[in-house]
Specification:
alpha/beta; homodimer; Rossmann fold; 12 strands; Lambda_DNA-bd_dom_sf (chains A, B); DNA-binding; transcription (chains A, B); Peripla_BP_I (chains A, B); 434 Repressor (Amino-terminal Domain); DNA binding (chains A, B); four-stranded parallel beta sheet
Chain lengths: ~350, ~350
DNA sequence: CTGAAAGCGCTTACAG
DNA sequence: CTGAAAGCGCTTACAG
């Protein structure tokens, strides 16, 4: 069942049918109705590949999970962002194509090649750690790209991320307000851009409040798992004097740290306060519930869709959008004020 | 840059180039090398749409989130399944197309139409609650389909789900082994197929161990949120005698129940034991850590890929595969035996 | 308001 | 081992 058959059944030309499908105005109402009826009756559906071939426009957005997260997109942050993105870009008439990296990366192919192959109209690039160099080819290409948690410099690229500096600022500020003066930090050994921002801003905030930056209170986790946070916290516990409050750069690290502190006989938050970052579901049910910072994943995803849409449909300058994070207070960060 | 240009540059016909691209054996080695070199130098990439148009094969698998979950695929179960599926089907040479339901469902379009439009070679259908009727059109179509947590009857369909009966059996068995005899259940008011299985098997297991099925101990949650579980548990608390252990049909419901029990002054598990189902991340960090049943999402996803592949590439009978779940013991289910 | 025809970039019998 | 040509199902100037 193709456009030719419809044309024959309706006694018109394929050009006419095509115009009706695409809502051209200059078609007789009678003809339009007749053709529409036949399309309805026959259950005719146009073919995407033929349309894409003829128009060079696929109405597809390629989804790239770059770096270490490409093998696993189960992290809640990415899922929430892509979910919001999907909804919004869907409303704008685009579907999503997920490149299955496994095979083509083996064969030395790259994202740009895949994007060309499928003629996607644009790409969203969600970055984890150790992003492959092939992403920069995509960035530099004429294909519009929107990056999440990754810096993009291409002519047709923009990028979005949470204001990661503010994340640390808010935590330090809250710790300070709660009366703590000795603050520790659990960061990552091989820090991504995002993690670098958090660490830098943590140190700057200390300065701002004239708090001591004790090197013994800055420890670095091997990786992102709770067990890595556990190990890092054990290192922290070897300091001569312990910090009074600790900001772990992610919730999972925070959970690991809490476990280490408990095992060392410390009470959280009475002896040592803890805050994390991400507001994963577990924060609400942990013991104690974890104070954390919530990234506005819904806004990030939807903004990404709107900006990519603009990028695909009109000229736009490269730029970076930062989205405001939100502090979520729970029991783990305690307070000294009640004891004063 | 197209196949014609490559052919011209190499001084061969487009047919020859096409054969080289597709690894036909009957090409002179010299010619092959020359053409390959030119493709390399020019950075030529074939076009998916032209290929699909010519072959009627897209190497694309459509992903359908049916029912209430189509607006939100953030539930860990679905993410984990689709993640495993993506890896495996990627290895088999397919990419994933996510239909953006939002727009086309408004317009009264359906999954089958979208699948035809994109000429996907097959579909994976992941079902939540209240699955739309349009899914059955897909099921009945010639397009190979693999269903997750949904019954499929089409000639070219198979489906996979955890052995949900076994989930309940394992929990009841464990409760029994731990010495509990008075067992309660928190189910769902409008139960999906999966939830029906869990409830049915719960009751059957009670019989098997000659335990009492007390109607007061069977309560039903409005929806899937922890707050719904909380409400259901409050109802349970009004029973004349309380059950000694409660199986909540999902972890989130279990968390809500734990909160209700705690608020009522009960200790978990000392006064009332609780088990959930799904093994979401929060189970490890909750207070107490939650005993639960883990679905083998990795196996489900990978099996789905393998079966869909077979369905797409050869004849196969419709059938249902059940995947063994695994009990994960944590503190919340306690035990009476220590007190004996 | 409608249609004939070229073109999009591939594949595939078929002929040699 | 290689090539000429038809065909896949659309769109789009252009002519009328």
């Amino acid at each position: 069942m193709n456009i030719k058959t419809i044309a024959r059944l309706a006694g018109v030309s394929v050009a006419t049918v095509s115009k009706i499908i695409n809502n051209y105005p200059d078609i007789g109402e009678e003809t339009r109705q007749r053709v529409l009826k036949i399309m309805e009756e026959t259950g005719y559906r146009p073919s995407s590949s033929a349309k894409t071939l003829a128009t060079k426009k696929s109405n597809l957005v390629g989804v790239v999970f770059a770096g270490k997260l490409n093998v696993d997109f189960s992290h809640p942050f990415f899922v929430e962002v892509i979910n919001a993105f999907k909804k919004q870009i869907g409303l704008l008439g685009y579907d999503l194509l997920f490149f299955s990296n496994e095979k083509f990366l083996d064969q030395g192919e790259d994202y740009l090649a895949r994007s060309k192959y499928f003629q996607v109209d644009g790409c969203i690039i969600i970055a984890g750690d150790e992003v492959e160099s092939s992403v920069s080819d995509l960035d530099a290409s004429p294909i519009p790209c929107i990056g999440i948690d990754i810096e993009m410099n291409g002519q047709n690229s923009c990028y979005i991320m949470s204001d990661n500096e503010k994340i640390s600022t808010k935590v330090v500020e809250q710790f300070y307000m709660n009366g703590y003066r000795d603050l520790g930090f659990i960061g990552l050994q091989r820090a991504s851009l995002v993690m670098q921002h958090r660490e830098k801003a943590f140190k700057q905030s200390l300065k701002q409040f004239s708090l001591e930056e004790n090197p013994e209170w800055l420890v670095y986790s091997q990786d992102y798992a709770a067990t890595d946070g556990y190990e890092a916290a054990k290192q922290l516990l070897q300091a001569d004097v312990l910090p009074r409050a600790v900001f772990a750069a992610t919730d999972l690290l925070a959970f690991g740290a809490v476990r280490a502190f408990k095992e060392a006989g410390l009470r959280v938050p009475e002896d040592i306060a803890v805050a994390g970052c991400d507001d994963i579901e577990a924060c609400r049910y942990s013991d104690p519930p974890l104070t954390t910072v919530k990234q506005d994943t819904d806004k990030i995803g939807r903004l990404a869709a709107m900006i990519l849409f603009d990028l695909m449909n009109k000229q736009m300058d490269n730029r970076c959008i930062k989205v405001e994070p939100e502090l979520v207070l729970r029991r783990s960060c305690g307070t000294l004020l009640a004891y004063q």
